[in-house]
Each structure stands twice: as structure tokens, then as C-alpha cells.
Design goal:
About 40% of the residues are buried. The protein has about 325 residues and is α/β, with parallel strands linked by helices. It has a 7-stranded parallel beta sheet with strand order 8-7-6-9-10-11-12, with helices on both faces. The chain has a 5-stranded parallel beta sheet with strand order 2-1-3-4-5. The chain is elongated and about 70 Å long. It has 2 domains: about 120 residues, Rossmann fold; about 180 residues, Rossmann fold, CATH 3.40.50.720. The longest helix has 17 residues. The protein is built from 12 helices and 12 strands.
């Protein structure tokens, strides 16, 4: 039986690929039907690209496309693939699938880690600990509970849904925006179309950005939106840095338009050392690690295996996480 040629772009030392391959090689269909070529991205050459029918990668370089004479499907190992969507790829017949859903659990937990730090004043405690400072002044006025608070989820995809579920478990009132608001979910009290984002911003004490970066969402949160938010609101961004107008956010935090921000993504990255965000007492930063989990590779493999079965059966309609090339995700 002819084997399908799969090219895996594998960054050296990235354990995701090791876990991905280990899970795939446990599958009988893979052992029988897949011929792997595993190369680091900087060693991928025209011959390997010319032979590949399927490619698994974190990023697809534009210059690779011209050599991909047999390529029919790309399985991306990430959910946000905006940097790979060249005009050539978007107008081709190549099927694109992403790893949406792999990040949902770790990112939702990361979001609530930040929310709880703000609610209980733990970010202040950590800073005082670094100075060996015992100071309880103002804590009664600053701390609050998540229970009964309003959580606004901007973008109810896999990650947004996981955030909403945890919000409901904490006893929060949950608002969310979704491109197709008729698709209801039990975890959301009020589901809104994107055009009603101002309503969500005005009501929410915690606003969590879970949208992909597209031409429509770039600087989705700018000065006007920040001024619409509550003065006691916390903005949490785990999507992409460019979804927020960062200079406007810095000004909002400095001038008290909002109470604080939990940021895992920035524009640009790495965040420059001279950015005021580093020194702000009302900001919690993490270096784009909210999606990190020891289970990433195995979960990505499950998506790939499901799609591989559909691909080999000639049934692309049964593939999951297929990218809509019109919208970019």
C-alpha cells in the first residue's frame, strides 16, 4: 500500500514535536500509511517540499510554496496562523487546518490565574514579598470577589468558551461576543454579535480578549473602547498583541481609565525593556506563555490523527479545524 508523504517541520529542542510524534507513532494507521520526513525549518529543502503531500508545521514560509508540487494539506500546530497566510496559499486548493482547542485548558487557567491575582491583591503581595515588606494598608478597599462579578469574553471560540465555563463555575455573570450569536452555550448569560462590543465593555469588570488577529480585529481595543470600559475593569489579553492599541492601553493604565491589565501578548514581542508596562503596579505580565502545557503535542496529534483518517478516506468534509480562507482562521 502506498504511503502518504508527510513532512514535519520540527524545531530542535521543541518537545511539542517529540510528544506529537510519539502519539502519532502509537497509531496503527500512521504506521501503515505514513512516511515521515522530519526536518528543522531551516533545513527544509526543495526536494523535501516537492515530495510532501501533507505538511505539519508551526509556520509555513512563503518561499516554500513554489516547491510544493504535491502538497494537498497543511496541519498547523498552532491556532493563530496569520503569519503563514500568504496570497499564494490563500488562493490555492491546499486544505489548511489549525490546532484550535489545544490551548483552551492552559490559557483559560492562565486567565483565571491573572484574574484571581487582581481580585485578591496577590500581585501586590508578590511585589511586597520581593521587598520583604509587611503592609496590609488598603487591602480591604482593594480586594474583591469573582463571585457575582461580570466577565466579558470577546470571541467565543474554543479558548473563549473555556474561559466562559470557568467564569460560570466561579459564579460570575458571563457576557460574550461571537460572529454567529445564534449558536448558544449554557456558560454564557448574554451572547452578543461583534457590533455590540461596546455593551460588553460597559458592563464587564473583567474583559478577556480571545479573538484571532485579522484585519477586522487589529486594534479592536483602542482609545474609544478603553474609555467605554468601567474604571474598575481589568483587561486581559491572551490573543495577539496587535488586537490592542498598546500606546492607548498604556495611557489608559497611567490615567486610570481602567483599573489594570493582565497581558500575555504584546506589540511588538519581545516587549522592549523600556516599555512603561514593565514598571506599572496595575499590570501583570507574562512572556507569551499562556498556552504552554506538557500536553500540547499529544493534543495536537489527536487533531492530526482525526484529520488524517478523513484525508486518507477522501473525505475532507469530515476534517476538523479547517481554516476559512476568507476570514483567516
Amino acid at each position: 500500500m502506498t504511503k502518504v508523504q508527510v513532512l514535519l517541520a520540527c524545531s530542535p529542542g521543541w518537545r511539542i514535536h517529540e510528544h506529537f510524534l510519539k502519539r502519532c507513532e502509537q497509531d496503527e494507521l500512521v504506521r501503515e500509511r505514513v512516511e515521515w520526513t522530519v526536518l528543522p525549518p531551516d533545513a527544509i529543502h526543495p526536494d523535501a517540499l516537492a515530495q510532501a503531500e501533507v505538511m505539519v508545521c508551526g509556520h509555513f514560509a512563503r518561499e516554500w510554496f513554489v516547491h510544493c508540487r504535491r502538497l494537498r494539506w497543511i496541519q498547523f500546530l498552532g491556532a493563530g496562523i496569520e503569519g503563514s497566510l500568504s496570497p499564494e496559499l490563500l488562493t490555492s486548493d491546499i486544505i489548511l487546518t489549525n490546532a484550535s482547542g489545544v490551548h483552551a485548558i492552559p490559557i483559560a487557567e492562565h486567565v483565571f490565574g491573572m484574574m484571581l491575582m487582581f481580585a485578591r491583591g496577590l500581585h501586590r503581595c508578590v511585589r511586597q514579598q520581593m521587598r520583604a515588606e509587611w503592609n496590609r494598608d488598603g487591602f480591604r478597599e482593594q480586594v474583591r470577589e469573582l463571585y457575582g462579578a461580570t466577565l466579558g469574553v470577546v470571541g467565543l471560540g474554543a479558548i473563549g468558551a473555556a474561559v466562559a465555563e470557568r467564569g460560570k463555575a466561579f459564579g460570575m455573570r458571563v457576557l460574550a461576543t461571537r460572529r454567529h450569536p445564534q449558536q448558544r452555550t449554557e456558560s454564557v448569560d448574554v451572547l452578543l454579535p461583534p457590533a455590540q462590543l461596546p455593551d460588553l465593555l460597559r458592563e464587564s469588570e473583567y474583559v478577556v480578549l480571545c479573538v484571532p488577529l485579522t484585519h477586522e480585529t487589529r486594534h479592536l481595543i483602542g482609545e474609544a473602547e478603553l474609555r467605554q470600559m468601567r474604571r474598575d475593569a481589568i483587561l486581559i489579553n491572551i490573543s495577539r498583541g496587535a488586537v490592542v492599541d498598546q500606546p492607548a492601553l498604556i495611557r489608559a493604565l497611567q490615567e486610570g481609565w481602567i483599573a489594570g491589565a493582565g497581558l500575555d501578548v504584546f506589540d511588538p514581542e519581545p516587549l522592549p525593556a523600556d516599555s512603561p508596562l514593565w514598571q506599572m503596579s496595575n499590570v501583570i505580565l507574562s512572556p507569551h506563555v499562556s498556552g504552554v502545557t506538557p500536553h500540547y503535542g499529544a493534543r495536537a496529534a489527536e487533531i492530526f490523527l482525526r484529520n488524517l483518517r478523513a484525508f486518507l478516506a477522501g473525505d475532507p468534509a469530515s476534517m476538523v479545524n479547517v481554516v476559512d480562507k476568507r476570514v483567516g482562521y
